[in-house]
Amino acid sequence: MTTVTLKSTAPAVTARRGPRGLLWATLRLHRSALWFWVMLVAVAAGVLLWAYGPGADAAWAEYRSRGCLDGRPNLGCDMGGRAADRYQSAEALAGGLIQIVPFLTAAWAGAALIGRELENGTARLAWTQSVSPARWLAAKLAVPAALLAAGMLVLTLLHRLLFTADPALRVTVGMADWHQSPAYEANGTLATAYALLGLAVGALAGMLQRRALPALGTAVLGLGALMIALSDVRPYLWPVRTLTGKQYPEWTGMVVDDGALTSKGARVADPICVDDARCLAEHDIVGYYRDFHPASHFWPLQLTETAVVLTLAALAVLLSFRLLNRRVARAV
């Protein structure tokens, strides 16, 4: 009698594993923030593309239909119609979304990226899983920094495309000049630089507070104070151009200072004599001056401020690593 031994021929089941590592762990943990960022970029990009194409065409068609482009006097041309209002609103919406990104980034980085993980202990758990604290913080900052830079680059290019496509239409509908916010930040490298500064300030606030809500408030307030200070010093980051004359000289650009000139060449406050010869003689006024930045100073100002902003961001990151090292050293 023969005994037949049957061997199981069922295939072995191999567990499927997804991508691993700090990169994928960070993306999985903060996937809600990632989708929000993708949505924000998509909305802002869509608005800019609409304004560049159908929005601009509709605004010009409206002005033509009202006879505003044939040289005939028309008081109605001083007021924008619905199409012009929509065009202007689209540009303002996109610029506002770009301008708010640094604050959203600072709040998220302080509260969710760093503060919450230090508060609930998940950061310390990660440090025990063959991940050094320095690698943990580096991954936390590198992943969102790359995504922020990529998204802001797209929005900056689209905003600049809209801004430079039709200068005549911008003048017609009364849009912001090159040196006014948010157009100034959105048309160059500053939009990306400030977004990265928001990330760095948020991370530093998270390391300082080690709790989500306090870190959120500290990050937003700190970033706001820095941005106000930088906007105040912006006109002085590059040498100004000066015009003088018997009357105030005409100019186009960012005005830094103006006033009156005495016979000795001294700059004084304008006594507002207008054409009163006696008043001018009493104050020894012989002319006027105006310091300003022309449009050709856009990139020198932009790149200089970008260098300052990125330096501040680097200092904030360096302080975050120093605080992390001190925290780990005390825990040992």
TrEMBL record:
Alphabetic keyword roster: Membrane, Transmembrane, Transmembrane helix
Cytoplasm among keywords: no
Annotated TM spans: 34-53, 92-115, 136-163, 183-205, 212-230, 306-324
Superkingdom: Bacteria
Protein name: ABC transporter permease
Organism: Streptomyces nigra
